[in-house]
Amino acid sequence: MRIKFLLGLVPVLLMPLAGFCQDQPNPDQIYDKAYSLIDQQNYREAIEQLKLFIEEEKKTGDADQDKISGCLNDIGTCYHKLNDFQEAIHWYNQALAVDREMRSIENISTRYSNIGFAFRKLGIWDSALVYYKKALTIDIEIGDGASIAKTLNNLGTLYHQMAKYDSTIHYFQRSLEIKKNIGDSSGMAVTLNNIGMVYNAWQKYDKAIEYFHEALHLDTLLGYGQDFPKRLNNIGTSYHLKGDYNKAIEYFSKALLLSQESKNEDMVAKLNNNLGMIYLKKKDYVQASNYMNKALEIYRRSDQKADMATVLGNLAEISFTRGNYISSLDYLSRSTELAENYDLPELAKNNYLLFSDIYSSMGNYSEALKYYKKHIAIKDTLYSEAIHKQITDFEIKYESEKKDKEITLLKQKEVIQALTIKKQRILKNSLFGGIALSLILASVIFLSLNRRRRDNRIIAMEKAKTDRLLLNVLPASIASDLKEKGSTEPKLYENVTVCFTDMVGFTEKSSKLEPKILIEELNAIFTAFDNIIEKNGCERIKTIGDSYMSLCGLPEPNPNHAENMIRTAVEMVQYVEKRNLESSVEWQIRVGIHSGDVIAGVVGVKKYIYDVFGDTINTASRMETSSAPMRINVSESTYQLLKDKFKFEGRGEVQVKGKGVMRMYFIKV
Question: What is the rounded CA–CA span in Å between residue 51 and residue 39?
Answer without folding.
Answer: 17
